[in-house]
Amino acid sequence: MKTMLKALASAALVASPFLAAPAMAQVAAGQGVAVVDFEKAINDTAAFKAATTQVQTQYKAQIDAFNARSQAINTELAPAQTEIQTLQQNPATAKATLDAKVNAYRTRAQAAQAELARLAQPFGRPTAYAREQVAEKVEAALRAAMAAKRVNLVINPEAVILATPGGDITPDLTAQLNTTVKTVSITPPANWQPGQRQAAGGR
């Protein structure tokens, strides 16, 4: 199960970078600052979890093939990585030699990434579609969560140096999304592309 989830996560990154919700939202009557992890809030929704389970079941063969190929590629590239590290640590290594090794590695790694992207498409696309259906409701849900907690500013966890647990309204955002988005589909329209629903204003 963990391996499948890892594959789905990789596919989501390949097929559709995280659909970032507004970094900041304002509620006029709010007071205070809170932290929100948008990705976690979406991942924790009942609708997205159910969709993920559907994808894992429906595309199990493709996910297994992706994981197997990914592992094989990692095994293939590992010796080259080790060789480059060894050459970098050796002061006697000629720059031309190191550059040639690095360029060869990059070329192979890029080809591998493209190959994995193709393998991830069958299950990455429905995963991205399900995520986008939840993500397009984030702004309204965030405003409701902020109003309930009397918050007028939210920041990403990466920007926080120190915060108390009470300063994290991610669970509140998830709860609001759960009331708004009951279910999502894992069957995107034939011509759907990641970001298309948001660009069209959710129509």
Write structural notes for this entry:
The chain is mainly alpha-helical and 203 residues long. The chain has eight helices and two strands. The chain has one domain (2-199). The protein has a two-stranded parallel ribbon with strand order 1-2. Helix 1 crosses helix 4 (60-89), helix 3 (46-58) crosses helix 5 and helix 6 (138-149) crosses helix 7. The longest helix is centred in the middle third of the chain and has 41 residues, at 95-135. It starts with a helix and ends with a helix.
Helix/strand order, N-terminal first: HEHHHHHEHH
Could you report the average pLDDT, rounded to the nearest whole number? Answer: 84
Give the CA-CA distance, first to last residue. 34 Å
Low-pLDDT sequence parts: 12-30
The side-by-side strand order for the widest beta sheet comes to: 1-2
Number of strands: 2
Helix amount: 55-70%
Largest sheet: 2 strands, parallel
- What structural class do you assign from the helix and strand content? mainly alpha
Give me the number of helical elements: 8
Strand content: under 5%
Radius of gyration using CA atoms only: 21 Å
Shape: flat
